[in-house]
């Protein structure tokens, strides 16, 4: 593993996707144990997409092999975004994480907070925001601080479901919003920048040569510029980490 400091981010580069997934799973363990030891509670928002699926499978395998058990009864799992489909749909981020991880570990069902994406998008966003505020004990004028938020990087520079030119990019009050994504011809529900930037730790995961160009744009460009949504993730006082493989880092 090698590191680069590309303010405001710290970048850790792993030989391949397998090493990368192992490192993300180990960071998840570290964050969870530190939060639980400190506050008796760990709040984490999972990313969708394909990259993190191997991480989720490793976390379930760690638990079942006894390699690294977590205090799941003290862990609350959320989702940084969701597609506007029912939870059993093939496109559902909840379904992916449930099959790869949540159904295979002893986390109480009441600790899994999926987006009720079977509702109309705006209703789903409002319902989710209310659940976040309830579980994290946040008043209406507070922004909750997640202990860890996992994020991916899309080829167009999107993260969560904050896509270029989408209305969600400008949201500064709501924690969760619904947004029409023209290029996909669908609605998405997504965390807004305020809740991302309040996190104690954001961990971006990117793998594969197809992400190399966009990673260079995001990390190699003018640190004050925001040309792509992922550059809008600028933590107020948390740690911004990028865990990537050598292929994705090949243009840094
Ligand atoms: C989603 C994710 C999205 C994803 C990126 C990267 O719902 O799809 O939240 O932001 O992280 O599109 O996806 P891959 O990991 O599949 O490349």
Account of the protein in words:
Helix content is 29%, strand content 21%. With 252 residues, the protein is an alpha/beta fold. β1 and β2 form a beta hairpin. α1 (17-39) crosses α2 (53-65). The protein starts with a strand and ends in a 7-residue tail after the last strand. 6-phosphogluconic acid binds at residues 47-51, 81, 93, 152-154, 158-161.
Bound molecules: 6-phosphogluconic acid
Helix content: 25-40%
Beta-strand percent range:
15-25%
User: What structural class do the secondary elements suggest?
Assistant: alpha/beta
Low-confidence stretches: none
Major beta-sheet overview: 7 strands, mixed
Distance between the termini: 15 Å
Oligomer: single chain
Shape verdict: globular
**Spatial order of the strands forming the largest sheet:** 1-2-10-9-6-3-4
* Average pLDDT taken over every residue: 96
Write the layout of secondary structure elements.
Blueprint (H helix, E strand, L loop, with lengths): L1 E5 L2 E6 L2 H23 L2 E5 L6 H13 L9 E5 L1 E3 L9 H8 L20 H15 L12 E4 L24 E6 L4 E6 L1 H5 L3 E6 L5 H9 L18 E7 L7
Parallel strand pairs: 2-10, 3-4, 3-6, 6-9, 9-10
Antiparallel strand pairs: 1-2, 5-8, 7-8
This protein binds 6-phosphogluconic acid.
The site of 6-phosphogluconic acid (6PG) has 14 residues, from loops.
Task: Pick out its properties.
21% strand; binds 6-phosphogluconic acid; 252 residues; alpha/beta; 7-stranded mixed β-sheet; 3-stranded antiparallel β-sheet
Question: Concise description?
Answer:
By secondary structure, the chain is an alpha/beta fold.
């Amino acid at each position: 593993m090698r590191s680069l400091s590309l303010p405001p981010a710290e970048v850790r580069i792993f030989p391949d996707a397998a090493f990368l997934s192992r490192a993300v799973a180990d960071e998840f363990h570290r964050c969870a144990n530190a939060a639980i030891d400190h506050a008796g509670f760990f709040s984490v928002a999972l990313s969708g997409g394909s990259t993190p699926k191997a991480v989720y499978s490793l976390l379930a395998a760690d638990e079942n092999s006894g390699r690294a058990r977590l205090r799941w009864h003290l862990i609350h799992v959320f989702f940084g975004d969701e597609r506007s489909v029912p939870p059993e749909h093939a496109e559902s981020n909840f379904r992916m994480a449930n099959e790869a991880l949540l159904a295979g570990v002893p986390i109480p069902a009441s600790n899994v907070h999926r987006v009720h994406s079977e509702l109309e998008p705006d209703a789903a966003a409002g319902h989710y925001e209310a659940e976040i505020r309830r579980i994290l004990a946040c008043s209406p004028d507070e922004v909750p601080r997640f202990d860890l938020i996992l994020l991916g990087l899309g080829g167009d520079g999107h993260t969560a479901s904050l896509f270029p030119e989408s209305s969600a990019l400008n949201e500064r009050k709501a924690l969760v919003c619904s947004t029409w994504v023209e290029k996909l011809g669908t609605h998405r529900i997504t965390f807004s920048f305020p809740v991302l930037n309040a996190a104690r730790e954001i961990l971006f995961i990117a793998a594969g040569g197809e992400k190399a160009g966009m990673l260079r744009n995001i990390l190699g460009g003018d640190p004050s510029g925001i040309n792509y949504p992922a550059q809008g993730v600028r933590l107020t006082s948390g740690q911004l980490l990028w865990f990537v493989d050598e292929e994705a880092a090949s243009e840094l």
